[in-house]
C-alpha cells in the first residue's frame, strides 16, 4: 500500500531525519511539557519505547522499538508492535517487524524537497518473497500482525500524523538548534 501525502509546508527532509531520531523525549507544546510522541498524534498514540538502541546509541539503524497505538481511538484496532529500525537518513526512514529472516510488516517513509515543502511517500508492505514468507508468514502478516480491519483506520491515522508534522516540527527543530551545543 502506498500513500502520497500532501506536501509538508516548511518541513525539510533534514527535519524529518532529526524527528525520527528524536521521537522519544519531551517538548514544550501549548505551554506545557509533553511527550513528543503524544504531540505527534495526541488522540491515537499511546507509547513509543526504545527497547535497544541503534548503532549511535539512540533511534538509528539497528534500534529495536516498541510502538503502541489505538487507531481511531479504538482498542479493537490496537497496534502493539515490536520493530527494528532499518534506516534513518535525509531521504528515508524505515522500520520492519521480522521473523525467521522474513519481513512481516515493513513501513518505508521517503521524503524529498520540493520548493519550500517536502514530498512524503509512505509504503506499507505486508509479507515478503522469502521461502518462509511464501509458505506461511505472509498469511500471518495479513491475518495476525496487520489484519484487514486495521488497514483503513491505519491509513487515516497515518495521514493525520504525517500532516501534523508541519504544525510543530519546524519550531521544535529550530528550538533544538538554538539550545543544543
Describe the protein.
The protein is of the alpha+beta class and 181 residues long. It has one domain (2-179): Alpha-D-Glucose-1,6-Bisphosphate, Chain A, domain 4, CATH 3.30.530.20. Helices cover 34% and strands 39% of the residues. It has 4 helices and 10 strands; from the N terminus they run ββαββαββββββαα. It has helices at 13-21, 36-40, 131-145, 148-179, and strands at residues 2-4, 8-9, 26-29, 32-35, 45-52, 64-70, 78-88, 92-99, 102-114, 117-126. The strands form 2 sheets. Strands 1, 2, 5, 6, 7, 8, 9 and 10 form an 8-stranded antiparallel sheet that branches. A hairpin with a 3-residue loop joins β7 and β8. The model has no long low-confidence stretch (mean pLDDT 91).
The SSE string, one letter per element, is EEHEEHEEEEEEHH
CATH homologous superfamily assignment: START domain
Low-confidence stretches: none
CATH architecture: 2-Layer Sandwich
Q: Specify the helix fraction band.
A: 25-40%
* Rounded mean pLDDT score: 91
Beta-sheet strand percentage? 35-45%
Give the radius of gyration: 16 Å
Structural features:
alpha+beta; 4 helices; 181 residues; two-stranded antiparallel ribbon; eight-stranded antiparallel sheet; Alpha-D-Glucose-1,6-Bisphosphate, Chain A, domain 4; globular
Quick structural summary:
By secondary structure, the chain is α+β, with helices and mostly antiparallel strands.
